[in-house]
Amino acid sequence: MQKEGFVSFWVGNINSSEELDNLLEISYTEDGDFIPSMFAQSFGIDRYDDAVREADFYDEADNSLSRLLEGFSYDDDIIPKFSSLCGAQLPRQYNVVILLYNFKYEGIKKKTTINYSNLEFLGAIEYL
Prior knowledge:
The protein is α+β, with helices and mostly antiparallel strands. It is built from four helices and seven strands, in the order E-H-E-E-H-E-H-H-E-E-E. It is about 25% helix and about 45% strand. Strand 2 (about 25-30) and strand 3 form a beta hairpin.
């Protein structure tokens, strides 16, 4: 749900940056109705502001939370907060990060597989 000052955090493993783009692609019907991305549909998200979404694909998987989040907006603030929430070392290695800013995911689904892509919700924190 849209909530100012929060950021929601997903990680995953996929095959390519093109696959990530496909998962995050939003579209519209011929009548102009919004069709959520496969990512949003999989987690039961009706809508989010795509302008404040950040995502990245890494050629090499990593389990270091700080390395995965380095370079994202507000990384000086979000890295220590997500480290407190999830631990500095994640239990598995991941090659994808998705962040939705001004959004506090409160859905019940924590993991999903879309085609051959595995995504996992790790949490939401205040970043402002």
